[in-house]
Design a protein that fits this description.
Structural class: alpha/beta
CATH architecture: 2-Layer Sandwich
Shape: globular
Distance between the termini: 6 Å
Number of strands: 8
Strand order of the largest sheet: 1-2-3-5-7-8
Number of helices: 4
CATH class: Alpha Beta
Radius of gyration: 14 Å
Protein name: SpoIIAA-like
Strand content: 25-35%
Order of helices and strands: EEEEHEEHEHEH
InterPro entries: STAS_dom_sf
Oligomer: single chain
């Protein structure tokens, strides 16, 4: 039984100017660099990566918010168009991220939660996607 993301094999890694994106079998995970403004252009690039790997299957997204950066909340309007994106998990220990989550969730209006740790986010996306043996 897998209990950690670190037990999984990374299928692809994208080292972008502003973030690193890891692709797994049924989810993508990212860390965005300090000070970045995550805008429509960057959102479109993430969506393009998602469409490359998950075009015909359901998937989840985990955002590790280790750094401080800004998300343009209008990005969530575009993310809603990814109909196969079934769960979005944000992982952070920063109080400001928990405050901002309410704003982001207002714009996204789909299945999104915030967690203090990566393991809880991983367990949640497995439940949402109905993955066995996690």
């Amino acid at each position: 039984m897998l209990t950690s993301i670190s037990d999984l094999q990374v299928e692809a890694t994208y080292k972008l100017d502003y973030a690193t994106v890891y692709i797994y079998d049924y989810f993508m995970l990212s860390t965005v660099n300090e000070g970045v403004v995550f805008d429509k252009e960057k959102c479109n690039e993430f969506m393009s990566i998602a469409n490359t790997y998950f075009k015909d299957k359901s998937f989840a997204y985990i955002s590790l918010r280790n750094q401080s950066y800004t998300v343009d909340p209008t990005c969530y309007f575009y993310l809603r168009n990814l109909t196969n994106l079934k769960a979005m998990a944000i992982v952070s220990t920063k109080e400001i991220d928990f405050f901002n989550f309410n704003i982001e969730n207002f714009f996204y209006k789909k299945n999104m939660k915030i967690f203090h740790d990566k393991k809880s986010a991983y367990i949640w996306i497995n439940r949402v996607l109905k993955i066995k043996n996690y």
